[in-house]
Design goal:
The protein has 296 residues and is of the alpha+beta class. The protein contains four helices and 17 strands.
């Protein structure tokens, strides 16, 4: 009597499929593990970094930490956004590479003898770590640290957080949301004379709507001076004898609030110099918006 081969063949196919399944599963896990592996370029305790300096080819930017406060070294009165140097310290102090080159050539072959970018980190013990970034290679850059002569390829995105413009790192003043719905009163003082627009005065409804439109259009986004000295206020028309003072009463979340704007001279390009409350930042706001605020 012949034995039936069908079930044996099916069992054999099943065993083969199981072997293939486990082999593929093991291979995938190994690949995932490889993808998760990173090459450390720097491994610093970022909370202990007290100095961040870099040059991206447009001039050196330098920041230092005193206690818990970061300062822009060139101007300690500059309103530095405190999260900024910490972000750079975190990114550069824990920098990872796509790979480390084996048997790397001389540094000049990668543009690292005269680096395109240089980032220097200093910790609280005075230890200095210098990251040099050279030529681009695809979506990466060649990089090295200190004098190790090890060459890495780091993602170009590693440098995304590093800024070179002051307006990108400044902590500008927060301007309130003001409109005809929450403006209570505006008092303008100019050349010793005072003009008042009161929302409770029905005869001034049109004027109140006009000045509210001006106040609501203000955007504090462009600065002419980030930390003006008293001696320089006259140059902006913002000294006490020249400026126009605009005192604003409004409500926010059902709470009474006040704000003071100081409007100075024109810059010759369609803007006027403006300051807010006791801030030392001089902003640029268009003539048109200022004229609406003043109901001119």
């Amino acid at each position: 009597m012949k034995k039936k081969k069908g079930p044996l063949i099916l069992i054999g196919v099943l065993v083969l499929l199981l072997i293939l399944y486990f082999a593929l599963s093991t291979w995938n896990k190994k690949q995932d593990s490889k993808e998760e592996e990173t090459v450390k370029v720097t491994d610093l305790k970022t909370s202990e970094i007290t100095g961040v300096k870099y040059d991206l080819g447009t001039g050196e930017m330098n920041f230092e930490k005193d206690g818990d406060t970061w300062y822009y070294t060139a101007d300690k009165d500059f309103p530095l956004r405190q999260s900024y140097p910490k972000t750079v310290a975190d990114a550069m102090g824990q920098l990872s590479a796509d790979r480390e080159l084996e048997d790397a050539d001389a540094l000049e072959e990668y543009g690292l003898d005269h680096p395109t970018y240089t980032v220097t980190l200093t910790d609280e013990d005075g230890t200095v770590t210098t990251i040099k970034v050279g030529n681009a290679t695809g979506n990466d850059y060649y990089a090295t640290v200190d004098d190790t002569e090890k060459v890495y390829t780091i993602p170009a995105t590693s440098l995304d957080d590093i800024q070179t413009e002051l307006d990108q790192i400044a902590q500008l003043d927060t301007y309130p949301s003001i409109g005809s719905g929450n403006l209570k009163k505006e008092v303008i003082t100019q050349n010793g004379e005072t003009t008042t627009y009161d929302s409770e005065n029905e005869d001034q409804a049109e004027d109140v709507a006009a000045v509210a439109g001006g106040l609501g259009a203000v955007k504090l986004s462009e600065a002419a001076d980030y930390s003006v000295d008293d001696a320089d206020l006259a140059g902006y028309g913002l000294d006490a004898t020249s400026r126009i003072t605009v005192e604003v009463a409004y409500t926010s979340d059902d709470e009474d609030q006040t704000m003071t704007l100081y409007i100075g001279g024109e810059n010759g390009s369609g803007d006027r110099y403006v300051m807010m409350n006791d801030s030392r930042i001089v902003y640029l706001i268009s003539d048109e918006i200022c004229n609406n605020i003043l109901n001119q």
